[in-house]
Amino acid sequence: MHEELFRAMRQSIIDGEPDQAREISQRALAEGISPLDAINHGFIPGLSVVGEQFEQGEMFLPDLVLAGEAMKAAAAILEPEIQKTGAARESLGRVVLGTVKGDIHEIGKTLVATMLSANGFEVHDLGVDVPFDTFAIRAKELNADIVGISALLTTTMAGQKNVIEAMERLGLRPRVKVIVGGAPVTQSWAEEIGADGYGRDALAAVALAKSLVPKGS
Amino acid sequence: MPPSLQLLNPELIDRILVEAFALIADRGVKIQARCAADLLESGGARVENGIARIPESLARHALKSVPREFFLHDRDGKPVVKYGGNAVQFDPGSSCVHVLDPETLEHRMSQSADLVRLVQVAEMLPQYAAQSTAVVCNEVSKEIGDLYRLFLVLWYSGKPIVTGAFAPHTAPIMIDLLAADSGGHEALRQKPRAIFDVCPSPPLNWSDFAAQNLFDLARAWVPAEIVSVPLAGAAAPVTLAGAIVQHAAECLSGITIHQLAQPGAPVVWGGAPAIFDMRSGITAMGAAETAMLNVACAQVAKSLGLPTHGYLIGSDAKRIDAQAGLESGVAALMGALGGINMISGAGMLDSLACHSAEKLVIDAEAIAMAQRVVQGVEPRSESLALEMFAKAGAAGDFLKLPETRKLFRSEQHLPSKVIDRGSLNSWEQNGKKDAFARARERVHDLLSSYKRPELPASVEQDLRAIVEQQAKKAGMDHLPGI
C-alpha cells in the first residue's frame, strides 16, 4: 500500500534531491506512515544503493554528497515527529570532527560529516584549522563517542597525534574513540599514533564509526 | 607563424572578464590582512566584515601599472627568464612532501639530501630555465622550512628560482637571503633572481598570510606570482568556463592589492587551476581539463597583456609508468602551445605530493619535444626541396648532402638516451631497459658531471650567517644538506 511512497523515498536519495525527500517525508507523515519506518525502510535503503554504486565506481562524489543532503532534508522533517512519539530514532553516536590546526582543507572532512550524519550519527563539525585542544575540549563538553581528525597535508598530519595527546590529558581516552583520515593518512600511521581506526574514504569512515560504537553493529 | 593553441574566442574572454569583475565588485573577496584591507579601502573598495568589494575601475587602474614584461636573472646577472609575451619556460614542481625512491620505489618523506639531488639534476638540464624549491625538507624545523629550501637552492644552483614563503615572518628573511645573493637589496630589485608564488584560498579568499605576502613582495619589488587554485567542481564551479572566471577574479583582486602596495612592481597572472576528481577527491593534475584550464587562464591574461604562469606536467600516477608519461607529455605540449611564460610542475607524481629526479629527466624530454613543436615548420633553405632534389641525383640519396649535415641539428630535436629509438637488437644487447631504467642511469650521469656554481666566499658567509641564526632559533644545531 505504501510501497510506492517507500520507493519514492529511496529514489529521492538515489537522485540526490533534497526537495523531493522533504516533500515525500511530509506526504508520508500525512498518510500516517511511521516516521521511523520512513527512515529505515524508505530513505536508508536509498543511501545503501548510493554507497554500493559509489564503491563500484558507478556513482561519484557529487552523487554521494547530494544523497547525504537529501537524507538530511528527510531527517529534518521526520526526526521531530519521531521525538514527539517518544520513540526517538536513536543516534548511533555523537561525533566531533574537524580539520586539524594549520590545515584549511575542508572537502573531505565535510563529506565525512555529511555521510556520518546521513547514516544516523549526531555530528558536530568544528570546521578547519582547529586547535588540538579544541577537539578535546569540545569532545568532553559534548560527551562525544568519537572524535574524527582530518589532515590533508603530511606537514599537518602530525597534528592528529597532538589531538590524541590533548584527549589523553583530559582523561577522554580510551573511552572516546579516535578516527583519522586525509590523503596522506594510512592504517599504519593510525596505529602509530594510537588512533582507533582510519577510513580511506567517507564510506569507509561510516563503516569504521559504526564498528566503534555499540549501537552501530 | 609559430603554432599556438587558443581555447577561448574573444567573445568568451569578454564574458569571462565581465563576470570576474562582477564577482570582485558584488560578491566581494575575503581579505583578512589589515594592511591589504586598508589599501583597498583607500583605493575606493568597500570593506565590511572582512569582505572587500572592489570596483571594476579600481582593478582596471591596477592592471595599467603592471609591467608587461620583466626578467629573472641568473647568478651572473644575465636576464635568462622572460615573463611576458609568448615566452615559454619550465621549472620543476614545488613543495612536494615525498620523493619517489628510485631503488625501493617507495614514496618516502623528502629531506634536504633529496632537494639537493633534485636541484643538481635540474641544474644540468637546459629544459629547466629556472629552479624551484621542489620539496619540503622534513628533517628541518617547520618554522624555517621555506627559507631553508631557498638557502639550499641558492647554495647549489646558478639559475633563477621559483619559490614561496610559508608564513608572514619568513618572507622578509627569504628576501634578505636573495639580497645577500644578489649583492644588496637595490641589486636584487634591479636584477631579481627569484619569484614568489602567492596563493589565494579558493574561492575568493586572501588569507592573512597571502595578502601580507603580496604586500611585502610588492614593497620590496621582488616579483610575485599569483597562484590561484580553482578546484573545478569542489572549491570552484564545475564548468571550465566558471572556474576560469573564478581564477580571473582571484588574480584581479590579488593584482589590485599588489599594485596598490607598490604600483609598477612585477606580478604574474599565474595559477594551478585543476579539476577535482569525482571518484577519489584528489586534484587531478594530469587531466586534459586541467591542462585546458591552464591554457585558457593564460589566454585571459594575454588579452590583458599580462605575464603568465601555469601548473602542468605533474602526473597523478604513483610510479613512472605509461600514465605518467602520457599525462605529462600531453600537458607539456598544451602548455607550450598555450604560450604560458612559466610552466611549473615537472617531476611531480601523485597529484602534487611526490617528486622524482628520474621523472624530471623524462619530463625534460617531453618539454624538449614541446619546445620543438612551438618552433613550427620554417623554410630553412632557399628552395624548399628543388635544389636538394637536384643535388641528390637520380638515386635521391639525401643523407650525403651537405645541407643534411648542416640543417639536421636545427630541424630535428636530438633526444637524450632516455628516449630509445634504436633497433630491437641493440635494445636487447643494452639490457632491455625501459624508460625508467634509462632515466635512472641518466640521473646518475648528470649527478656525476654536476659542478656546483662558484659562490663568492663573502656571499657564502652571508647566506650561512642568516640561516644559522634562524636555525639556532628553531633549535637546530647543524645545517643539513651542505
Written description of the protein model:
The complex is a heterodimer of chains A (217) and B (482). Chain A has 217 residues and is of the alpha/beta class. Chain A has helices at residues 3-14, 18-30, 35-55, 61-84, 107-118, 132-142, 154-157, 159-169, 187-192, 202-212, and strands at 94-99, 122-125, 146-150, 177-181, 197-198. Chain A has 2 domains: 3-84, Methionine synthase domain (Methyltransferase, Methionine Synthase (B12-binding Domains), Chain A, domain 1, Orthogonal Bundle); 94-216, Cobalamin-binding domain (Rossmann fold). Helix content of chain A is 58%, strand content 10%. Chain A has a 5-stranded parallel β-sheet, sandwiched between helices. In chain A, helix 1 (3-14) runs antiparallel to helix 2 (18-30), helix 3 runs antiparallel to helix 4 and helix 4 (61-84) crosses helix 5. With 482 residues, chain B is of the alpha/beta class. Chain B folds into 2 domains: 64-375, TIM Barrel; 388-417, no CATH class. The model of chain B has no long low-confidence stretch (mean pLDDT 96). Chain A binds chain B through residues 57, 60-62, 104, 107-108, 111, 153-155, 183-184, 201, and chain B through 97-98, 109, 136, 138, 142, 145, 201, 207, 233-235, 276, 278-279, 281-282, 353.
